[in-house]
Structures are given as C-alpha cells and as structure tokens.
Write a structure and sequence with these properties.
Layout lengths: L12 H11 L5 H30 L2 H20 L1
Helix pairs in contact: 1-2
C-alpha cells in the first residue's frame, strides 16, 4: 500500500468507543479508520444502487403489470384458503 494523505479528525466519545471495537480485531488505528471509511462508502453506494434499481423497476410498466398480476393471484389463493 502506498502512503496516503494524512488527515486530522476530532472524535467524540461514541466514535472513540467504535474505533476501539474495530481496533480490537487487530487493526491499527489507521487501518481501522480506513476500513470504517471504506465500509461507509460501500454502504452509501449500495443504497444509491438500490434506489436506482427501485426507480428503474417502478418505471418498467411491464414489470409493474407482472407484479400486480402476481399480487392478484396470491390474493385469490389466500381467499380460497
């Protein structure tokens, strides 16, 4: 790994405790912070990807019609039971 840009942050008590949890897995302080930043970025990207997928599916008239047909079929099965 190459040397990266050094930054300085002030951590509140909750963040210090969270950092200690990550460090307890054997990570150095720098590794723990990098891992936390990367994990947070992945979660944000995944959320954005899921939102885009939902928007794409909501805009797909054929998919919506199929979803409504399945829901109607499931409702009729439930009503029969």
């Amino acid at each position: 790994m190459t040397s990266g840009k050094a930054i300085s942050v002030r951590l509140d008590d909750e963040t210090v405790r969270a950092l200690a949890v990550i460090q307890a897995t054997g990570h150095s302080r720098s590794e723990a912070i990098r891992a936390a930043v990367l994990a947070s970025a992945r979660r944000l990207r995944r959320g954005q990807e899921l939102a885009a997928e939902v928007a794409r599916l909501e805009a797909d008239a054929e998919d919506r019609a199929e979803m409504l047909a399945i829901a109607a079929m499931m409702e009729s099965v439930r009503a029969e039971g």
